[in-house]
């Protein structure tokens, strides 16, 4: 199926869209020259409009039913890579903190189109799902392997994914307690800063999104303090992370974001404790 995109004159360009119905067919289609995967399209479509990418083939993953759905078994919540944010919000009841996080992403239009796999593959430094994955110790499953969240996120818009590798599912170990608090940038609804805190069998994890130029990260000092005392007061004695390396823009300085990390961590812990 061929399409034209643009706003007239020589700015218009053509590309093909293919809609495979299996992961194997999608991988095969991505082997074509200048092919690019299309999941929910919430990042890629604006990128195409700005001519920051001009693929000759878009491989839509929306018709692959095996990539969709939420299930829970043995203390692990599994979410298909093609599952929309709205579906996670509605069906991840076994992991309330994750369902709540999904319900805060964007607006209804974004939640009904955007997918968890697309978000994690893009790894926007202010996206919410990276904080949930890193803050839970999730496993990102692809068509070829499984990648621990600690190894998956490798910097702003950078992941461990190889070329043509597709996120097929995400496995979240369901913790004893967890919560996500986001200070929302009102125009984009991305996180100016977001903190995901969890306490589980493997200990306490604190993951921060929206703050660092390197993308999502774990605040190890808070994890150590909370491992001994999982209460908001345990964070009081900590210094906020350094503002060096924090995002600084018209919405907030690096120092302001660093201060928010500590404040939101305390609020997340209080929320997790109910």
TrEMBL record:
<dbReference type="InterPro" id="IPR036318">
    <property type="entry name" value="FAD-bd_PCMH-like_sf"/>
</dbReference>
<dbReference type="InterPro" id="IPR002346">
    <property type="entry name" value="Mopterin_DH_FAD-bd"/>
</dbReference>
<keyword id="KW-0560">Oxidoreductase</keyword>
<dbReference type="InterPro" id="IPR036683">
    <property type="entry name" value="CO_DH_flav_C_dom_sf"/>
</dbReference>
<protein>
    <submittedName>
        <fullName>Molybdopterin dehydrogenase, FAD-binding protein</fullName>
    </submittedName>
</protein>
<dbReference type="InterPro" id="IPR016167">
    <property type="entry name" value="FAD-bd_PCMH_sub1"/>
</dbReference>
<dbReference type="GO" id="GO:0071949">
    <property type="term" value="F:FAD binding"/>
</dbReference>
<dbReference type="InterPro" id="IPR005107">
    <property type="entry name" value="CO_DH_flav_C"/>
</dbReference>
<keyword id="KW-0285">Flavoprotein</keyword>
<keyword id="KW-0274">FAD</keyword>
<dbReference type="InterPro" id="IPR016169">
    <property type="entry name" value="FAD-bd_PCMH_sub2"/>
</dbReference>
<feature type="domain" description="FAD-binding PCMH-type">
    <location>
        <begin position="10"/>
        <end position="177"/>
    </location>
</feature>
<dbReference type="GO" id="GO:0016491">
    <property type="term" value="F:oxidoreductase activity"/>
</dbReference>
<dbReference type="Pfam" id="PF00941">
    <property type="entry name" value="FAD_binding_5"/>
</dbReference>
<dbReference type="InterPro" id="IPR016166">
    <property type="entry name" value="FAD-bd_PCMH"/>
</dbReference>
<dbReference type="InterPro" id="IPR051312">
    <property type="entry name" value="Diverse_Substr_Oxidored"/>
</dbReference>
